Amino acid sequence: MYQFADNNDNKETVFTIKAQDLKFGVGALRELGPDAVALKMKRIALFLDGNIQDGEPIHRVKKSLKSSGVDFEIYDKAVCEPNTTSCM
């Protein structure tokens, strides 16, 4: 087994990862707008594949954000390994 460090290296080998809360389940998309408001978000960027933009889940996301008064911009033309030009 490969060792990254041992006790003789006097290196820090313990680290902490703080996991974010995840929300999933029936109705979770309807809660996006209220959750964004609770986080004091005013404007959101939605990065989507152009093939899913007209799907029902995305309509639910947009409806939730609109009804909560959260502005959003859809970016569906980004490319793999995007640069600043492809995202503007």
CATH fold assignment: Rossmann fold
Determine Rg (CA atoms, Å): 20 Å
Please identify the structural class as seen in this structure. alpha+beta
Span of the ends, CA to CA: 46 Å
Adjacency order of strands in the biggest sheet: 1-2
Number of helical elements: 3
* Tally of DSSP β-strands: 2
Strand portion: 5-15%
Helix content: 25-40%
The description of the largest β-sheet is:
2 strands, parallel
Shape: extended
Q: CATH first level: which class?
A: Alpha Beta
| Low-pLDDT windows of residues | none
Number of domains: 1
The CATH level-2 architecture is identified as 3-Layer(aba) Sandwich
Mean pLDDT: 85
How would you spell out the order of helices and strands? HEHEH
Short précis:
This protein is an alpha+beta fold and about 90 residues long. Helix content is about 25%, strand content about 10%. Strand 1 (about 45), helix 2 and strand 2 (about 70-75) form a beta-alpha-beta unit.
